[in-house]
Amino acid sequence: MQTLLIDPVAFSIGSLRVHWYGLILGLGALAGLLLAIREGKRFGIPQEFFMDLLLLGVPSAIIGARIYYVAFKWEDYKDNFLDVFKIWNGGIAIFGALIGAIICALIYVRRKGYSFWRIADICAPSLLAGQIIGRWGNFVNQEAYGGPVSESFLRGQLHLPDFIVNQMNVQGVFHHPTFLYESLWNLVGIVILLILRRQKFLRAGELFIGYFIWYSIGRFFIEAVRTDSLAFQGAAGLADFINNTLWAPMTWMGFELGHLDPAYGNIRISQLLSVLIVIGGIVLIIVRRVTGRANVRYLDPIVSTKTGAGPTPEADLQTNKAAKSSAQAPVKQDKPAAEPADKSPLTQVQETEVKPSPVEDTPAIKSDTEDKKE
Fold first, then answer.
1. Rounded CA gap, 45 and 247, in Å?
2. Is 137 helix (H, G, I), strand (E, B) or coil?
3. CA-CA distance, 214 to 32, in Å (whole number)?
4. How far, in Å, CA of 162 to CA of 58, rounded?
């Protein structure tokens, strides 16, 4: 059956070929930047701060993603070290990208005098926006797909349009569009985060932690459908717990585990890491609240500790509201104390002497007419 496949090269400039994958990732980064800038304005953070953060964070994320992937595929690179740098051949991991970006952000944000948790909260929806768009780069490249499925499953049960169904036909075999599953999961997640960040109960850092929890839940279930997962040989009991017990809801919905070569491994690294992140994130939220480290709320003003940093518009807004409330509040006037009925002549003379004369304090300004009369 002839299928319409998308050319991974968008256009060429001489010998330079521009791939759709790079353009899509760039679009995702731009969308995330605009979201962060828009939210940062509410707290008085200049847009240059987020632009610099992106310029430093993207290379850090790419380096982290590559190191993460190569570390778990070292057997394929140890004899061909130069292949490590050939990132255009594929081989990056999202968790590695997050690690690289977080390390960069920790250093940059602290140098600017801001709290890491506050900035991370602002950037949390941006991360999801980048992933929502970026996964379509995998779609164009026909990578990161799931196990084999029938064409009727894609058309009849998932009701997917032709351009997705055709692209999921890899060498005559249709596959699960796991890129689409993750993109839609993250789309729901970004809506949840945008709603949560307007709630008064949300504490600083919890939106960022919530992003990791939400993404890891979806990644755990979607990862097992894929056939290109990084894996390792682990305890049989742990593998059974992950692949059968925790993944059981997917089986009930009719999904099957993607193929994983037993000689390569029996535990998918992303699945195990997802479980640890979910548990660690929930524990971290509880510990920060119990120990009083989460007293600052998301909606509180953000102020840099650097010299000369002023309060954010959020702080000015709250101050103006407080001042307005105080001005509108009724002010009780105390009744003047009753003066004594009779005053002695000595008392009257003392009061007269004590009161300053406004004429003496303010020098008289004579007009030109008066000068002429003198």
1. 42
2. helix
3. 18
4. 33
Beta-carbon contacts of 98 under 8 Å, excluding residues fewer than 6 positions away, are 61, 64, 127
Whether the Cβ atoms of residue 276 and residue 251 lie closer than 8 Å to each other: no
CA distance 131 to 149: 25
pLDDT of residue 327: 53
φ, ψ at 10 (rounded to 5°)? -70, -50
pLDDT digits (tens, 9 = 90+) for 264-291: 899 999 999 999 999 999 999 999 999 9
Spatial separation of the C-alpha atoms in residues 275 and 219, rounded to whole Å: 10
CB neighbour class for 310 (10 Å; exposed up to 12, middle 13-18, buried from 19): exposed
Residue 159 region by backbone torsions, left for phi larger than 0, else alpha for psi between -120 and 50, else beta: left
CB contact at 8 A, 21 and 137: yes
15 or 206, which is more confident: 206
Residue with tokens 């140890």: 78
Q: Which residues have C-beta within 8 Å of that of residue 200, sequence separation ≥ 6?
A: 297, 299
d(CA 51, CA 33): 7
Residue 31 has pLDDT above 60, yes or no: yes
Structure tokens at 370: 């008066």
Whether the CB-CB separation of 176 and 146 falls below 8 Å is answered with yes
Place of tokens 């009925």: 341
Q: What angle do CA 212, 214, 216 make, to 5 degrees?
A: 65
pLDDT of residue 364: 43
Q: Average pLDDT in the 243-267 region?
A: 91
DSSP 146: B
Beta-bridge partners for 11: 18
* Region of poorest pLDDT, from 3-12, 48-57, 90-99, 184-193: 3-12
Quick one: which H or E segment has residue 16? strand 16-19
Residue type, 207: L
- Return d(Cα 99, Cα 350) in angstroms, integer: 80
Q: Is the pTM of this model over 0.85?
A: no
Cα–Cα distance, 143 to 67 (Å, whole number): 19
pLDDT of residue 328: 55
Distance of CA 65 to the CA centre of its chain: 18
